[in-house]
Every structure is written in C-alpha cells, then in structure tokens.
C-alpha cells in the first residue's frame, strides 16, 4: 500500500497543498507549529474517516473558510484507489471513493490502513483505561469484520441506557435496552479478546528485542464482566449480570459493566506497568505495541499499512530509535515529522524524500544531510 498523491484545500493551516510521493520514506522537516502534524492527521483521516486528535470536524477547517477538502490517490495490490473527503462547518461531511459517494463513514473503513504513533501515545501505559481501549478499537476498526457495526450501535445504546438510568426509569423500560446492550457487548468482547490474543505474542517478541531480553511483557485483556464458557452464551451471561446490577446502576446513574469499562493490562516482569513502569519502560512498551499493530494489520490485510510517526523519534533514546527504524521494512511507506534530521541514521535517510514545512507550505528539501547520525 502506498500513498501517491495528497491534496489539501483549506485544511487546518493549509490554504492549498498538492504533494506527490515517489518513494517509501517521506520526511516532513520543520519547526514546531508549522503544520507537520496536520499532514499526518490528514492521512490518518483517510483511513479512519475522522481525526485522531479532534472530536469535532470544525477544527479541521481553516478558520476563515466554510469547508475543507482532502483528496488522495493510493496504490494497492488490487490497483489504484482515490479517496476524497469534504468537511463543512456544522459537522456535515461527504465521502467519495473512486468517484462514488459513500453513505456512511463505516463504508470508508478498511479501504486503506495506517499505524499512527504520536508523542501522546507514550502516556498510554499510565493513562486511564479509555486510552488503552482506544488503541484496541482503532486497530479493530481498520480490520475486516465489520467492527464498526458493533461498536457504534453499542455506544448509542449505552448512551440511551445511561440517560434512562439518570431519569430513574422503570425496570421494564430498561429491559428492552439491556437486551440490545447484551447482544452487542458479547460480540465486541469476542473480537477484542481474539485481537489481544493475536497481538500479545507479537508485542512480547518486539519488547524482548528492544530490551535485549532483559524484560518480559505480557499483554492481557481484562473485561469488566465474567466471560466464562462458550462465547455463544456470553450475551445471556452479560444480560444476567446487567440485571443484577440495575439497582446499583440506577443509584449511580450510569452502566457499571460492559465493553466501555474494560482495560488492556500491560504486565512487565509480573507487575502491572500502570503502577510502576519508568518513562523508558513506558516508551518500550508502547513501541512494542505499535510494532505489533503493524504486524497484525500487515498479516490480516495482506499488505503493509502506512506508518505515521509524529515527532516520536525525539521522544526515544538512540537505542529505541534504532530499533524502530530497523523494524520498518522496505515495503512499509513511512511518513515522519521531525525538527532535526539528526534523529535519523545516515542509512535510513538515504533515499528518503524530504519536505521542508513552513507556515502551511511544503517545499522539497535540498539541504545538507550530513547532520544525520551514523548507524
């Protein structure tokens, strides 16, 4: 998979931008607050249908304009695919794939795939469970299997149930929503557990290599309710547990169990990393998870996704930088933002396309590469 062309119109701080990508290594070089991350955000949106950084589309539109457009052309094994997105003030949007309008954002998912690694991801280890759930969900949404048709209805049903709980609804009124909640919860848990079992040994392998075998990483899914026995019975089991907690839920005004309360446990040498991992260990864990994510997407989709690295090299020490760069295969198109070329080994930077980013403009860089370190 390769991104060949990216065009932005009134997106973030870009009035108009057209970029052609010829190779597999793309570096966006420039000072902070010039728009480097905005380029990676635009690429991520093409895969996810929404921003990984914002909850509302209005922030994607240049402040004095009514709409923003992202146009793109990808090359995949089955041929070329164009994806165009339009965002308008007030939340209205439209999506076209190969010139045809798509009815839902879910129709876009799975067309192209990305692995996004940002500085903020480093806080995943010691952050709240929601940040680790989001990591799992973002990968599953890009995989075949229609995960969005489970997660999004569940979230809507959950919001309706919570509203009824706050209104002190009668048990009979809650029962209707509880049955629907149980149906989607069981299916979500089955997919999450399957994914974690797939990614866990890969993350352990990468972590072993990154730490030279000095640390052992165990990745474990921790549901908020019992999942014993046949997965076909999980729905009825969840419904029974929800019924048992109705009084408690009514008292607190929210649903106390379900996929929205799960957690991804990251166990380092037998201890919960959330409580004790150092900054260096946190970086190693997140790097291991991202490399494992790359492995899973490549295996399940049949071709490598795009890798987006947003200023993360500056957050890693030389050893971890080298491990990351060494793990990027020639088949993986990689987009990296940086303020210094010295973050790269001389070997990795050879053959890379470099764009100087300044105030919403991208200019092919023809500077001296001697600042890059040897490696």
> What is the domain tally?
2
DSSP strand tally: 15
Q: Any low-confidence stretches, pLDDT <50, length ≥5?
A: none
Portion in helices: 25-40%
For the CA atoms, what is the radius of gyration? Answer: 22 Å
Cα separation of the termini: 27 Å
Q: Determine the mean pLDDT.
A: 92
- Taken in chain order, the helices and strands follow as EEEHEEEEEHHHEHHEEHHEHEHEE
- Percent of sequence in beta strands: 15-25%
Spatial strand arrangement across the major sheet: 2-1-4-5-6-7
Instruction: Quote the CATH topology of the largest domain.
Output: Rossmann fold
Q: What is the CATH domain class of the largest domain? A: Alpha Beta
CATH superfamily of the largest domain: P-loop containing nucleotide triphosphate hydrolases
Shape: globular
Count of DSSP H/I helices: 10
Largest sheet: 6 strands, antiparallel
